[in-house]
């Protein structure tokens, strides 16, 4: 799988604030927003543009517009904290939603929301979820997207575990990964180590199912 680790001092500083257990939810959310800006910027580096003439006050210049703005798909809850900033970066983008929560015993995702276009052939999709741990939640999302014909998918994460990356590679979905870090491993609770804890709880507090 094509994996881009965004290794930049400004990204590292935001990631550090997110990792720091002393950061409160306001600091955590703000750091996630700022980091999302950098991840989306890098994810869009290879986006196709269409050229057109634009009149400056002086002469004609070549201007550019995005040829195929991606569909943004935040995975609730934690991905919600990335959605607004991704839309700021790509104002032309539309947004679909997927919601799921891991069962704390089995670590398998339990879906509760699916709001996506019926057809996604030829349309780039950016899945927004800060955490790729076992990969179960991302795989479920990729399945929904592939069923609708998506074949150009970018998973934008903050921290990825090797186990999750391997799971994505094993199933061979048409996906590339953009992340701020690849961490060491998962612990017995399937949390990423060192990770940053529960990205949903750290933004919003405990989950009420
Ligand atoms: O790779 P996986 O093992 O599937 O774990 C990753 C998932 O866990 C987190 O969500 P969580 O289930 O905690 O829900 P939340 O966002 O509501 O907290 C995270 O945002 C991912 O969606
Ligand atoms: O470390 C982890 C693993 C799954 N979900 C999280 O929010 N954090
Ligand atoms: Mg959570």
TrEMBL record:
One of its GO terms (biological process) is uracil salvage. GO terms for molecular function: GTP binding; uracil phosphoribosyltransferase activity. Gene3D superfamilies: 3.40.50.2020. One of its GO terms (cellular component) is cytoplasm. It comes from the Bacteria. Residues 5-205 form the Phosphoribosyltransferase domain. Pathway: Pyrimidine metabolism; UMP biosynthesis via salvage pathway; UMP from uracil: step 1/1. Keywords: Allosteric enzyme, Glycosyltransferase, GTP-binding, Nucleotide-binding, Transferase. Belongs to the UPRTase family. This is Uracil phosphoribosyltransferase.
């Amino acid at each position: 799988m094509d994996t881009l680790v965004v290794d930049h001092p400004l990204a590292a500083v935001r990631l550090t604030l997110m990792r720091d257990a002393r950061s409160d939810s306001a600091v955590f959310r703000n750091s996630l927003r700022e980091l999302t800006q950098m991840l989306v910027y890098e994810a869009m580096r290879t986006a196709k543009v269409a050229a057109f003439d634009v009149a400056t006050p002086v002469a004609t210049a070549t201007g550019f517009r995005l040829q195929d703005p991606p569909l943004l798909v935040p995975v609730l809850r934690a991905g919600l904290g990335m959605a607004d900033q991704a839309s700021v970066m790509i104002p032309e983008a539309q947004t679909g939603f997927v919601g799921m929560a891991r069962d704390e015993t089995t670590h398998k995702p339990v879906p509760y929301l699916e709001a996506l276009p019926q057809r996604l052939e030829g349309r780039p999709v950016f899945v927004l979820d800060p955490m790729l741990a076992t990969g179960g939640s991302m795989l479920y999302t990729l399945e929904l997207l592939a069923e609708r014909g998506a074949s150009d998918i970018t998973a934008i994460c903050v921290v990825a575990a090797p186990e999750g990356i391997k799971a994505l590679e094993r199933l061979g979905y048409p996906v590339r990964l953009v992340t701020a870090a690849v961490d060491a491993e998962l612990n017995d609770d399937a949390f990423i180590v060192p990770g940053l804890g529960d990205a949903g709880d750290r933004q919003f507090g405990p989950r009420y199912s």
